[in-house]
Amino acid sequence: MTLILASQSSGRAAMLRAAGLAFETTAAHVDEEMLTASLRAAGQTPRNIADALAEAKAVKIASRLPGVTVIGADSTLALDDGSMLAKPETPEEAADHLRRMAGRRHRLFSAAVAARDGAPIWRAIGEAKLWIRPLSDAFIADYVAQNWDSIRWTVGCYEIEGAGVQLFDRVEGDPWTIIGMPMLPLLTWLRATGLAPQ
Predict the structure, then answer these.
(1) Where are the beta strands (DSSP E) in 7-159?
(2) Active site located where?
(3) d(CA 81, CA 79)
(4) pLDDT value at position 9?
(5) Residue 197 within a domain
């Protein structure tokens, strides 16, 4: 049985490869910004939005590929005041996001949804709490300049498995959720369905 990751995230693909899974990747091309805005307007939480985005990606690809299992994944970031940060569109916006997060805690929700024949068949959501240390403007400017090509694709402007680890004082949660997918529940499910080695 074929497994597809409906994501262009290098971090998510690397996690699946490191776990020894055979899979293909394809982009779902879901309008994440529009869907997020609609869900926020409807009063949905960042946790539920991550789940809905992951489901939209998985279902979109699975509806075109009968019998294929598709994994959609997405992450959302919420500050303690309830506001959400999206992927930065410019280096200046990335710097602004980092200034807003500096010296504060935020919560990261990473969801994975499996779909087959156009319908969701499994889901899991992981949560991590992360504390970014106080950051100087000079550090932020240098960090963004050196890492823009990779952080532009992340909701928190960091890849914790790389230079982003320099941002943090404290982290609660598993590393896979922070990178972008609740791997342990996903692997348990994939083994139960025969899509991962027992």
Answers:
(1) 24-25, 69-79, 84-85, 105-116, 119-132
(2) 74 (proton acceptor)
(3) 5
(4) 86
(5) no
Range of the domain at 123: 3-192
Q: Show the CA angle centred on residue 125, arms to residues 124 and 126, nearest 5°.
A: 125
- Per residue in 124-159, pLDDT (tens digit) is 999 999 999 999 999 999 999 999 999 999 999 999
Distance of CA 12 to the CA centre of its chain: 8
Contact between 113 and 54 under an 8 Å Cβ cutoff? The reply is: yes
- Composition of the chain by helix, strand, coil, percent to 5: 40, 25, 35
Q: Residue 59: CB partners within 8 Å, gap ≥ 6?
A: 70, 72, 113, 115, 118, 119, 120
If one counts the domains in the chain, the total is 1
Q: What is the pLDDT of residues 53-78, one digit of tens each?
A: 999 999 999 999 999 999 999 999 99
- In this structure, are strands 84-85 and 69-79 parallel, antiparallel, or unpaired? antiparallel
Give the mean model confidence (pLDDT) for residues 13-19: 94
Which residues are the active-site residues?
74
Identity of the amino acid at 136? S
Which CATH number covers residue 121? 3.90.950.10
